Amino acid sequence: MSGRITCASTTTRVDKVFLGHYATGLAAKKISPKTPLPLLLLAAQFIDHLWPLFVLAGIERVAIVPGITAFTPLDFSYYPWTHSLLGAVAWGFLFGAAVFLFRKDRREAMVLGALVPGHWLLDLISHRPDLPVLPGVDMVVGLGLWDSVAGTIVVELSIFAAGIALYLRAAPLTSRRSQIVFWSLIAFLCVSYAANVFGPPPPSVEMIGVAGNALWLVILWAWWVERGKERE
Predict the structure, then answer these.
(1) Residue 212's pLDDT is what?
(2) Are 141 and 134 in contact, with CB atoms under 8 Å apart?
(3) Cα 80 to Cα 136: distance, rounded to the nearest angstrom
(4) Is residue 161 included in any domain, yes or no?
(5) What does residue 121 show for φ and ψ, rounded to 5 degrees?
(6) Domain count of the fold of the chain
(7) 181-198: string of b/e by CB count within 10 Å (b at 16+)?
């Protein structure tokens, strides 16, 4: 298959369970309370950090197809290296191994390594059948929650609220500074989510790839949250 980026009006695929992925990173603080929030969120969204780079490089492909699902106009036509089940597990293993190499904490490495393929499981719930199981194998899966806008929003906001609650139990915000920084991050994610849901389709595939790299802003913001807590 060609690695060329394509933007057609007959195929689609946009970013998946946006808030739900961050919810798993927030919730994981309860399991691994010493792990910095930026690492937790990075692990939860790791394959979505890789995906825009693979799209811009022409290694994977997406197209803008309004109406392909009720929730998103993106057709994820080819992304076996970042979003196949095997690919997600492999990236999780590499992520966990890198964490263990630098932080020497086996439990933390296992939690972070598990968060990476956990992303695929949430995508399985939301996506139409477009998620590869193995690279090079013509088998795709997806339960299709995106066929219902209302259902997607209710499920995702519920997961996000649960993730926030679990994070706050594990890492209470004891100063006004930490409260402002944390809740401003939550507000930013919610506003971004609303814009993604109710805004117009992206103008081009290239813009999807470029905008996808803005996810790093969330990691920097999470670092700010963690830094504020260290100063309490």
Answers:
(1) 85
(2) no
(3) 8
(4) yes
(5) -65, -40
(6) 1
(7) bbeebbeebeebbeebee
Task: Please name the residues in contact with 180: beta carbons below 8 A apart, sequence gap of 6 or more.
Answer: none
Residue 54 lies in a domain: no
Question: Do residues 171 and 40 touch, judged by C-beta distance below 8 A?
Answer: no
pLDDT in tens, 83-139: 999 999 999 999 999 999 999 999 999 999 999 999 999 999 999 999 999 999 999
Report CA-CA distances (Å) from 91 to 43, 70, 87: 10, 30, 6
Q: How many CA atoms lie within 13 A of 199 on its CB side?
A: 10
pLDDT of 13: 34
13 in a structural domain: no
| Domain that residue 215 falls in | 18-47+82-230
Torsion-angle region of 67 (φ positive above 0: left; ψ -120 to 50: alpha; else: beta):
left
Residue % of the chain over a pLDDT of 90: 75
189 to 42, 127, 226: CA distances (angstroms): 14, 20, 17
For 126-193, the DSSP string reads: HS-S-EESSTTS--EE---GGG-HHHHHHHHHHHHHHHHHHHHHHS---SHHHHHHHHHHHHHHHHHH
- Indicate whether 191 belongs to any domain: yes
